[in-house]
Write a structure and sequence with these properties.
The chain is of the alpha+beta class. It contains ten helices and 20 strands. The C terminus is likely disordered.
């Protein structure tokens, strides 16, 4: 037992001594060259001046520039739907129609009621004129004291009653006219058109309805004139002259008011009658030759649609919007107008340029991210909403920056730095630096620095370590190989000479030997 314990003790002691020796020899091997006065082989690169771009990389999704849903304003059965998915739509183009037989009957009924109200107004005007004549005759007789005061008051009261009834009839006429306009508006809702150019169509519809009502009123006045051709009395002539003068004044006022409104609307639409070229040049291109694309078709012909139920989705994809979400760190660096470059997974060899158009004024509480929109021109319609894109947003450009390869950076506890070499003394010195913009290839140094820095082998360096450039060793190796090849050639030549001389000797011996033998 004692022998076994002694043997185990010596085995453990030997193993411990071996471990200590291995740990002592390992760090020595790293600094072996330095302690023995040797040098570390390194690769270097020049510190240069150049341009570097400060940019951020993001992944976002594409949205259409404009998107809106087409929906009917009234319910009914869809009798016609003229577009399908992918079709291009121009402004004011007819998209669909709804059955309008019932609404047409409502328009005709409203028109008939307007005519009845016009007849009632005409009847009441004749009664008023008759009451007015009766009142004037009674007043003249009263002045001559041929009638009593009671008859005069009765005539005056009858005249006022007829005047009030005329006002009621005129109010009824205006009410029926409003119902007629409402029915015509409902009839216009059965024709669903594409509208997006500054919403001018609603004003145009109102103007058309006003013009239609005015035409209706003019026709009614013509009918009145035809009816009143039966030699009216002098007072009726005077009253009609006054009414015609008032009507002419009102019409002139209306025309003077309408003229500037029409010019404003026409300027908005870029379609003035007298100055088309000028206004077309001043108008935006999207207002003149714009189009939309049908993105979705949600109903078919024959369907029963409800008011405000979606039917179609129209998209403007001549420019698309790339949406990204950024953190607080990048949010303060983004500004409107900054250039951006986009690539897609589909078009790998193609780059699209755009610019930042909107930066959200807040970061969401749930995600702490802010929405940023980048507009990308898409005239050939190659980009589609829903695609993923990779974006590079340029924050700033530095044309005269101090650049070093990124692999030359050394991380220490005190911070980042580089090993700059002294070409005369063949030594390397660690220099702390302040970093600016960093790209995958280069890093910007805010610390002014010139010369060359170590890019490979800096993990074996210390302050003031001796170095040897790998390029110089490569040159020396090439020279040594060339010298070795020359020696080998010379050696081969010697052998050849030796062979030749031996052969010559052999020939001499062969020539002499037969003589000796003889």
């Amino acid at each position: 037992m004692k022998r076994i314990k002694v043997v185990l003790f010596w085995v453990a002691a030997i193993a411990l001594v071996g471990i200590l020796i291995w740990q002592w020899r390992k760090p020595e091997s790293k600094l072996k060259r330095e302690r023995r006065g040797g040098s570390v082989v390194v690769e270097v690169a020049d510190i240069k001046q150049g341009e570097i771009v400060d940019e951020g990389q993001y992944i976002g999704s594409l949205l259409p520039r404009y998107q809106y849903t087409v929906a009917p304003q009234i319910g009914g059965r869809l009798s016609l739907l003229k577009v399908r998915v992918g079709d291009q739509v121009t402004p004011n183009q007819l998209l669909a129609t709804i059955e309008n037989n019932e609404i047409i009957q409502q328009v005709e009924q409203a028109l008939a009621e307007v005519r009845v109200a016009n007849a009632q107004v005409d009847e009441q005007k004749s009664r008023l004129s008759r009451a007015h004549k009766e009142y004037q005759r009674t007043r003249e007789l009263s002045q001559k004291k041929l009638v009593s005061q009671t008859d005069r008051e009765a005539a005056e009261s009858n005249y006022r009653i007829e005047a009030a009834k005329l006002k009621v009839a005129e109010a009824t006429l205006s009410q029926k006219s409003a119902l007629l306009r409402a029915a015509r508006v409902r009839l216009s809702y059965t024709r669903i058109t594409a509208q997006w150019v500054r919403r001018p169509l609603s004003l145009q519809q109102r103007r058309e309805l006003m013009e239609a009502s005015e035409r209706l009123e003019s026709k009614e006045e013509e009918n009145k004139e035809e009816k009143g051709k039966e030699a009216p009395p002098k007072e009726q002539k005077k009253s009609k002259k006054k009414a015609s003068k008032k009507a002419s004044k009102k019409s002139s006022k209306k025309s003077s008011k309408k003229a500037p409104a029409q010019s404003v609307d026409q300027k908005k639409n870029g379609k003035t009658n007298n100055k088309k070229n000028k206004n077309n040049a001043a108008a935006k291109p999207e207002e003149n030759d714009g189009f939309r694309v049908v993105g979705e078709r949600l109903v078919d012909e024959g369907s029963l649609v409800q008011p405000n139920a979606p039917m179609l989705t129209l998209l403007d994809i001549r420019s698309v919007i790339a949406v990204i979400y950024v953190t607080e760190k990048d949010y303060i660096r983004l500004r409107e107008g900054q250039p951006a470059h986009a690539t897609t997974y589909v078009y790998k060899n193609r780059s699209f340029t755009g610019r930042v158009v909107r930066v959200a004024p807040l970061l969401k509480d749930t995600s702490r991210l802010a929405r940023v929109e980048i507009e990308i021109p898409n005239q050939d319609l190659s980009l589609k909403p829903g695609m993923f894109v990779r974006l590079r947003v340029e924050y700033a450009r530095h044309p005269k920056a101090t650049l070093v390869p990124r692999i030359a950076l050394v991380q220490r506890e005190t911070g980042s730095g580089v090993f700059r070499i002294d070409p005369k003394k063949k030594t390397a010195h660690f220099i702390p630096v302040q970093l600016g913009v960093q790209t995958p290839q280069f890093s910007q140094l805010l610390t002014p620095l010139k010369g060359q820095v170590v890019t490979m082998g800096y993990h074996l360096l210390r302050e003031g370590s001796k170095i040897q450039l790998a390029s110089e060793l490569a040159k020396q190796g090439k020279k040594g190989k060339k010298g070795g090849k020359g020696k080998k050639k010379r050696g081969k030549g010697g052998k050849k000479d030796g062979k030749d001389t031996s052969q010559g000797k052999r020939k001499e011996d062969g020539s002499n030997s037969p003589q000796k033998g003889g």
